[in-house]
Amino acid sequence: MTNNWITTRAWLLMLPLLIVMIAIIGWPLIDTVRLSFTDAKLVGTQGNFVGFDNYAKILSGSNFQRSLITTFWFAVLSVSAEMVIGVLAALLLNQPFYGRSVLRALMILPWALPTVVNATLWRLIYNPEYGALNALLVQIGMLDSYRSWLGEPGTALASLILADCWKNFPLVALIALAALQAVPRDIIAASMVDGAGVWSRFRFVTLPYLAGPLMVALVLRTIEAFKVFDIIWVMTRGGPANSTRTLSILVYQEAFSFQRAGSGASLALIVTLLVTVLAVAYAALIRKTAGAS
Amino acid sequence: MERRSLTAAIFVHIAALLLAIVILAPVAWLFVMSISSTTDLIAKPLHWWPDTVDFSRYGVLLSSVANSAGEAFVASLFNSLKVAGMATIAAIAVAIPSAWAVSRTPSVGWSLYAVIATYMLPPVALAVPLYMALAWLGLLNNVFGLALVYLTILAPFTTWLLKSGFDSIPREIESAAVMDGARLDQILRLITLPLAAPVVATAALFAFLLAWDEFFYALLFTSDQRAKTLTVAIADLAGGRVSDYGLIATAGVLAALPPLLIGLFMQRALISGLTSGGVKG
Amino acid sequence: MLKSVTTALLGATLLAAALSAPAHAETKINALFMAQAAYSEADVRAMTESFTKANPDVTVNLEFVPYEGLHDKTVLAQGSGGGYDVVLFDVIWPAEYASNKVLLDVSDKITPEMKSGVLPGAWTTVEYESKRYGLPWILDTKYLFYNKEILEKAGIKNPPKTWAELSEQAKTIKDKGLLATPIAWSWSQAEAAICDYTTLVSAYGGSFIKDGKPVFQTGGGLDALNYMVESYKSGLTNPNSKEFLEEDVRRVFQNGEAAFALNWTYMYNMANDPKDSKVAGKVGVVPAPGIEGKSTVSAVNGSMGLGITSTSKHPDEAWKYIAFMTSQATQNQYAKLSLPIWTSSYDDPAVSKGQEELIAAAKVGLAAMYPRPTTPKYQELSTALQQAVQESLLGQEEPEAALKTAAENSGL
To answer: Nearest by CB to C77, which of B42, B141, B243?
Structure first.
């Protein structure tokens, strides 16, 4: 078999996937680009060409800037919390204790819970009048009176992050745990003989083994957090006073509630661009990490 | 095994207990709500366990009486099964040949990265044209239409997982068969796929869970019992006349049950899939 | 040979039977309702069942979504050929729906009996530029509900007639330690907040739009928001109101945790149901109060209508269904959670029995209904106003500045 034929055969085998991808991702994306230069409505009019008007309006408006900041904080805080708690949980699960295998198995529960169910569950827990969180905190004396967790801009985003973090940190923990189990025991033993402290043992012996898998989890979680829609839609719909209106919610509002497909498309593309920049930056970082270790 | 001081052992056990509570408490509360009466749920101070255990809401939601809330819920359950099932099968079908091709022909590998890169695209960037296209094809509010759209998420993901699975199967086994004159489809069917079966199963499970979880497209592209999926049905229930928190919780339990069971019983497969994909990129 | 002929004949018969089946089969129509306030899901299902019993050739698939999803679902289903035939729409949407051709113009289908029998005010629910896009179905406004027992304990003889009096009475209740926060509203970032706001705007004699330009940032519009903020900051209003929708208000009220609550008709009979409510038998209802020297009562037009979508393939059956659902007989039978659109129903003892207080409040309140602005850009206007209300309540912005920003962002 010649190399040429092997390459051709590879392309032929990939044909179904490529057709599907072009039809349901490539073409819609190009059409979104076209729409973003028009004032098209969602139903009915095709719209007229308006150049960069949509982009100019969005970038100069306060709505976009506010949503960008909200999204940024949501992504940074939830992902970093998930990473830290996840790694700590993994280190714990790597220690011997009674019931370890059961607890390891249970870790999958939050991750398997559908996002919408998770959001609904936490909305009930945060309920200002009858929620379990208020009841618990008051009954153990940590709170004097019931609070409106999702109704105050100061706590709404934090409450969302907590709910998101609860669902996603176990995944990080499981990935980190699998990596930990790959650390050769004799290396740890050797480092202990050398008299390395707990921190330096973690930093110089364990962490290098974790870095690769964690980096991938970090990238995936950040991209997902940047695109967040479901949990916010179900829990706050962007309120109170738009303090949790992330970019995806803003795009939904523009394109579907207000039916402005054109400017909705421009907004969506700006979000896409931001995610791409983020991903490219991460890719560079991963390459650097890989080169260093 | 290293020797630990007693304090360290106690600390580890306390931390483990804490972690177990954090993980279990919300899930347990969801279940308790589903079997509590409304009176218990709006009592102050809150009743953490109902006076009388009440499973009737499960009956309400799973009833098949025509034009009832139960019928609507069951319909959405089946829609979710249909959409997730079809999308998974389709995704695996297109992913197997392409993942194998990329795994065995590194020179076309870049195309896989292009496919994976689409995972970054926020669904909102595709939603408007997809909406218009589905409308034009008459596939809005249709399980086939929704399953097709779900391929945008599932196909890149499964291809990526399968490719790293195929990578771990030595080429030498296939080369030997080629020497014996086997055709490509025979090699795939008789040698590679049986060896890769665990990976394929893992990829299928992941795909199914992803589709089961999906909300945004389902919210936009379905409107009633003919195609509405569970996630949308639950969001509707939670956002509407929610005098009965227990009913919402019951719907949550029922919707979570399939993925929870898959998660608990297929754990090893899921985690190995995640880490192998993760480690090798 | 003979056998194969028989098989063929049999096959042909079966095929013919299969093909002819659709001829007898029923027409299927899809209807979209909301799972919130007004008629309960059970009521709508029961009404629909009576309709299909009377019209066995038509089946109706019912779909219930939260109010928050009603508008978007209707609009999004436009793209699908086999979408909804009948949709429930709020009084604020006909302008947009008419401009975007979402609903059929049904002006010619309306019979003289309907024209003369339905309350004149109800028609505004379905009208835009003197065309009618459906029939009014839910005739509703926000009333002031009060807990008779708590008022009695506080020594208050009569429920408030003015908004100032409401604050005074709430303060008495608070000072006597009966309730920490006596008033409950639905001020979540949603249309519900705008309904409460509009009620107050009508009390203060304000208006939303003048000559196509927003004017709510001055005069009555500003006074209304100031009242809300004042009531919130003074602690008379349950601070969780900023997170409440109508259902949350109802739960708090029927749990005996609110002395006053602003809500729709449906709360009266639900809060009086001993099975679900702790305040059954103690529920008082009056029209929302007025402002001394400006108004005696206040009310928002929160009515909703049933219309036929322009994409419906069965507009005739859809109309039949709408006519049945809005008919006086149906509405009188289910007059507990929502009141009829028919003038004569209000003097029908069968309708008012057991809810005389509600009917008395309705006669005054419904006559005073104040509209939210009629504009195709209502969704944007409302979104901007919701933000202004919430920012003012949360103290992020002064009401005047917040409303000014809302006026700029209203798209008008």
So the answer is: B141
What number of CA atoms fall less than 13 Å from residue B3's CA on the CB side? 1
Contact residues on chain C for B72, CB-CB shorter than 8 A: 63-64
Provide the CA C310 distance to its chain's centre, in angstroms: 23
CA–CA separation, C134 vs C124, rounded Å? Answer: 11
Whether residue C355 lies within 8 A of chain B, CB to CB, comes out as: no
- For chain C, give the mean pLDDT: 90
User: What is the distance between the alpha carbons of residues B193 and B201, in angstroms, rounded to a whole number?
Assistant: 11
DSSP assignments along B80-103, one per residue: HHHHHHHHHHHHHHHHHHHHHHHH
pLDDT tens readout for residues B203-228: 998 899 999 999 999 998 988 888 99
Q: Which of B258, B219, B236, B221 is nearest to B85 (CA)?
A: B258
Q: Which residue in the set C257, C386, C394 is minimally distant from A153, CB to CB?
A: C394
Q: B56: helix, coil or strand?
A: helix
Q: Which two tokens stand for residue A12?
A: 């032929």
C135, C294 in Cβ contact below 8 A? no
How many other CB atoms are there within 10 angstroms of residue C107's CB atom? Answer: 12
Taking the C-alpha atoms of residue C168 and residue B167, their distance in angstroms, rounded to an integer, is 77
Determine how many CB atoms are found less than 10 A away from the CB of residue B253: 21
Residue A233 to residues A46, A249, B85, B219, Cα–Cα distance (Å): 29, 7, 26, 11
Chain centroid, CA B187 distance in Å: 31
Half-sphere exposure (Cβ direction) of B4: Cα atoms closer than 13 Å: 13
The four Cα atoms A54, A56, A59, A60 give a dihedral, to 10 degrees, of -120
C82/B contact by beta carbon, under 8 A: yes
Q: For A263-277, how does the pLDDT look when each residue is reduced to its tens digit (9 = 90+)?
A: 999 999 999 999 888
Name C88's Cβ contacts closer than 8 Å, sequence gap at least 6. Answer: C31, C32, C33, C34, C70, C137, C138, C304, C305, C306
Contacts of residue C67 in chain B, CB cutoff 8 Å?
240
Q: Does A186 touch chain B (CB under 8 A)?
A: no
Residue C273 main-chain phi, psi, to 5 deg = -90, 110
Write out the H or E segment, with its range, that includes residue C209. Answer: strand C209-210
- Considering all CA atoms of chain C, what is the largest pairwise distance in Å, rounded to the nearest integer? 99
H/E/C letters for each residue in B165-198? HHHCCCHHHHHHHHHCCCCHHHHHHHHHHHHHHH
Residue among B49, B62, B46, B162 nearest B104 (CA): B162
- A238: DSSP letter: T
Looking at per-residue pLDDT, the higher value among B144 and B167 belongs to B144
Question: pLDDT tens-digit profile of A20-76?
Answer: 999 999 999 999 999 999 998 887 667 889 989 999 999 988 889 999 999 999 999
pLDDT of residue C398: 95
> Which of B72, B239, B242 shows the shortest C-beta gap to C69?
B239
Task: Give chain A's mean pLDDT.
Answer: 89
Distances (CA, A) of B90 to A22, B95, B149, B152, C331: 15, 8, 11, 11, 50
DSSP C104-122: ---GGG--HHHHHHB-GGG
A161 vs A122: CA distance, rounded Å: 11
C135-138 and C209-210: which strand pairing? unpaired
Q: Which H or E element spans position C214? A: strand C213-214
Report which of C165, C252, C163, C234 is spatially closest to residue C199, judged by C-alpha positions: C163
d(CA C140, CA C143): 9
CB contact under 8 A, C75 and A130: no
Q: Tell me which chain B residue has its CA closest to the CA of residue A5.
A: B105
- Which amino acid would we find at residue B177? A
Q: Do B240 and C37 touch (CB under 8 A)?
A: no
pLDDT digits (tens, 9 = 90+) for B183-194: 888 888 888 888
